[in-house]
Specification:
Blueprint: E1 7-8, E2 20-21, H1 28-53, E3 75-79, E4 83-89, E5 98-103, E6 106-113, E7 132-139, E8 150-154, E9 157-163, H2 166-170
Antiparallel strand pairs: 1-2, 3-4, 4-9, 5-6, 6-7, 8-9
Length: about 180
């Protein structure tokens, strides 16, 4: 029953313009009926934004049974008095699968995790392991020695050491925290 069918308008003979509401089981029923189109529009807008920010046009989403998310290694960034350290988890890869470059103020990490060959007799109902190419960009501050950056790969973990300049190392000092 639509909202309009809940109301009765004036008669065609020019009678009273008085509008009256049909009896309803609950007073909130009319409010729910009036807001239903707005709620539907809100759900659609939420879906559009979710698709865009969680993988719409820029990234693909996995299907329920057959597809996987693109591989993107998780990274930790830390700083000491002497260097910045970037640690990335890249399980199932070797050092030959990873390419690291420095361009002006950006450290670029590229790589590809290849899918292992499958036996024809295996049937998959769900696949969660990720494969594919990845591309991570890490902005670098001005106070680093770009020529002395090194990388170590061990047990599926990539560690990149970015040493600071002598000036940056000399400006590092610990501040004592006092309580009152």
């Amino acid at each position: 029953m639509t909202m309009l069918s809940r109301w009765r308008g004036r008669s065609s003979n020019g009678g009273s313009r008085e509008m009256r509401r049909r009896e309803m089981d609950e007073p909130s029923e009319m409010l729910a009926e009036m807001t239903r189109p707005l709620m539907k529009m809100q759900r659609e807008l939420n879906r559009v934004f979710d698709d865009f920010f969680e993988g719409g046009s820029m990234m693909r989403r996995p299907s329920m049974l057959t597809d996987t998310m693109p591989f993107e290694p998780r990274m930790d960034l830390s700083e000491t008095a002497d260097e910045f350290k970037i640690t990335a988890d890249v399980p199932g890869m070797s050092e030959d699968d990873i390419d690291i470059t420095v361009s002006d103020d950006t450290l670029i990490i590229n790589g590809e995790r290849s899918e292992s060959t499958e036996e024809e007799e295996e049937n998959y109902f769900r696949r969660e392991r990720s494969y594919g190419m990845f591309h991570r960009r890490v902005p670098l501050p001005d106070n680093v020695e770009r020529d002395n950056i090194d990388a170590i790969f061990k047990n599926g973990v990539l560690t990149i050491n970015v040493p600071k300049t002598e000036e940056a190392r000399s400006n590092w000092r610990k501040i004592e925290v006092k309580s009152e």
